[in-house]
Amino acid sequence: MSAYSFALCNEVLQPLNFEAQCRYAASLGYVGLEVAPFTLSDNPKDITIEQAKTFKNIAKLHRLQITGLHWLLVKPEGLSITSTDVTVQQKTVAFIHHLCALCAAMGGKYLVHGSPKQRLVVGEQTHAEALSLATKFFAQAAQSAHQFDVTYCIEPLSADQTPLINTLAQAIAIVEEVNHPALKTMLDTSSAGIAETASIADLIDQFFPSGHVAHVQLNDPNRRGPGQGDMQFGPILRALHRNNYQGAIAIEPFDYQPDGQACAAHSIGYLKGVGEIQ
After folding, report:
1. 229-246 pLDDT, tens digit each
2. Of the residues 80, 117, 126, 266, which has the maximum number of CB atoms within 10 A of its CB?
3. What is the pLDDT of residues 72-103, one digit of tens each?
4. SS3 labels along the chain
5. Is residue 162 scored above 50 in pLDDT?
């Protein structure tokens, strides 16, 4: 038996409804779903706590858990962590506070802050000015996460997606500056495979002992599922095991080949097989 627990990022199974996503993910052996709020509502700020609890119960009926949230700022439109507009800043902070509450009500443990289009260097601001605004935002997000007993994770993303926070070292610098126990970073193997110079296994050995890295998403740098590209995931799983990583490992492809359901099936089958070879 594989020693690893895998969650599936639920947008992979669209357009199935949430109950059907749970049924299918459970049939493949996933332990949970990592949920993108925009898949549940065109305006996630209108999702109520009671609705969040209903999603939790639907997952539970299929012996799954909602492990956390990701793709946080896709909807509603107009949000940004680098905008100089105070109204936009306030709306973004308030929305994230709401998502932290929803995450907790769904039984989730973490939120992954990727959302590259909502963390750009805008207008005539400098990179340093944008980074300062982002850091201020993450400090506020950490306070909301702490209130609801969840962890807020900064996701380093490759430079082809955003000019802001591309490497684990850059994310950890923010985590250390904010210095709040509810703020961490995470590892996305697709972006890391593009943005980092070290191997993924070496990154895990270097940075995970610090305690600053709280979550992992697996995907190939070609944006397909694990096992559908050149990245070797056996050394990655062994490094996670070596560093006593305890969380669910989320599978997050973007290019679903041949389709979402088949990609989800191939990914977990490949990873479970690789994970058994220790």
Report:
1. 999 999 999 999 999 999
2. 80
3. 999 999 999 999 999 999 999 999 999 999 99
4. CCCCCEEEEHHHHCCCCHHHHHHHHHHHCCCEEEECHHHCCCCHHHCCHHHHHHHHHHHHHCCCEEEEECCCCCCCCCCCCCCCCHHHHHHHHHHHHHHHHHHHHCCCCEEEECCHHHCCCCCCCCHHHHHHHHHHHHHHHHHHHHHCCCEEEECCCCCCCCCCCCCHHHHHHHHHHHCCCCEEEEEEHHHHHHHCCCCHHHHHHHHHHHCCEEEEEECCCCCCCCCCCCCCCHHHHHHHHHCCCCCCEEECCCCCCCCHHHHHHHHHHHHHHHHCCC
5. yes
